[in-house]
Write a structure and sequence with these properties.
The structure is a homodimer. The first copy, chain A, is mostly helical. Chain A has two domains: 82 residues, Winged helix-like DNA-binding domain superfamily/Winged helix DNA-binding domain (Arc Repressor Mutant, subunit A); 82 residues. Chain A contains seven helices and three strands; from the N terminus they run αβααββαααα. The longest helix of chain A is centred in the C-terminal third of the chain and has 33 residues. The relative contact order of chain A is 0.10. About 3% of the residues of chain A have low confidence. Chain A binds a DNA duplex through helix 2 and helix 3.
Chain lengths: 184, 184
DNA sequence: AGGGTTTGTGCAACTAGTTGCACAACCGGT
DNA sequence: ACCGGTTGTGCAACTAGTTGCACAAACCCT
């Protein structure tokens, strides 16, 4: 039950239309909570029906569509409640690790190439995060908001760092392994 | 579409009944691909219907229930295919990071306690992984299977290490922040 | 022998996320 | 004025995972 709260957060940061939200879910918020535009529109409808957000009265009423939404007090309260409520970390699910485990029984053929591809993707993501860090968090700023957001970005950076290192290590191991096509 | 492949892997490692699989999904495989017993039984049914696995002819035919399954050649082939096929990493989703981001707009009240709880959970998990490493991967062993499985475990250890460090850092930051109940 | 717990299998309903498509409006070029 | 791309909103169907419950057999306790 996190998508509605992701949307509330985004709307509190800045009231937006569905498409604007979709764009922001392709970066920033989307880096740790992705969503498609279909999901977003559906959820906006629900949140409005529940009275947590409302459509901003458009300047030019309804002519060229494009509804923007803002958060109502009830929405802010719900978000605060959710943020403070204890939640268990949800069980891991990682396909790549599963495939490695499978490779231990059916052989490693083909897997190496995909590990290399993943390494490249994680490197790219890491570079992007670092760039954002440089741009948005220069040494000076220090409001609580900045510190919290920086903390979140740091998690992203450190996670991508972990993956690049682990994949590098894995590829090194693979280099020493015979490329089997069948299991033991 | 990974649960069936997780099951195939587990069954290749050792033919098992539904409950035995469930137990193994609570550890080892389950550390990076969790599943409930309901999911597992449903999937076993499907895999059998597709001819990828079959029920082992029980010694005492059907007296006290308990069906064990083994993987058929078609199942092994499917697993090998899946393991080798390129797959994109799926977009991140992390509730805790989302909550931190929300806290930047609605205040940090209550969040600190849950961060502490998560830190404790990750520490425990890390300790468990290290114990498994000590037990299952003593310095001597060196078959390709061992190396691959160790690699997977290493990922688990490093991920938990990351989380404990990040949470420690986050809590240190929180200590300096005023515990706000409302946003800016 | 009866009664509670554990073992083992499974169905049904629900929730969240994904995929595929529809369609109107507007924007620019020819 | 028409045509094709982009912007913007949304429905419908499907897939994967979760939650809640049912029920039979076995085990073990008094």
């Amino acid at each position: 039950m996190s998508l509605p709260h992701a949307i509330l957060t985004a709307l509190l940061e800045k009231p937006s239309s569905g498409l604007e939200l979709t764009r922001r879910f392709d970066k920033s918020i989307g880096y740790f909570w992705s969503a498609t535009h279909q999901q977003i529109y559906r959820e906006l409808g629900r949140l409005e029906a529940e009275g947590l957000i409302r459509a901003l009265p458009a300047e030019q009423p309804a002519r060229g569509q494009k509804k923007s939404y803002e958060v109502l007090p009830a929405g802010r309260a719900e978000l605060a409640r959710w943020t403070a409520a204890a939640q268990d970390p949800k069980p891991q699910r990682d396909v790549l690790l599963l495939r490695l485990r499978a490779a231990a029984v059916v052989g490693t053929a083909g897997l190496k190439a995909d590990l290399r591809r993943h390494l490249e993707l994680h490197r790219r993501q890491l570079a992007e995060y670092r760039q954002i860090e440089e741009r948005d968090f220069p040494p000076g700023r220090d409001t609580p908001q900045d510190r919290l957001r920086h903390l979140v970005l740091r998690a992203g950076i450190d996670l991508e760092t972990f993956w690049t290192q682990w994949l590098t290590h894995a590829l090194a191991e693979f280099a020493e392994l015979p490329e089997t096509t069948e299991g033991p």
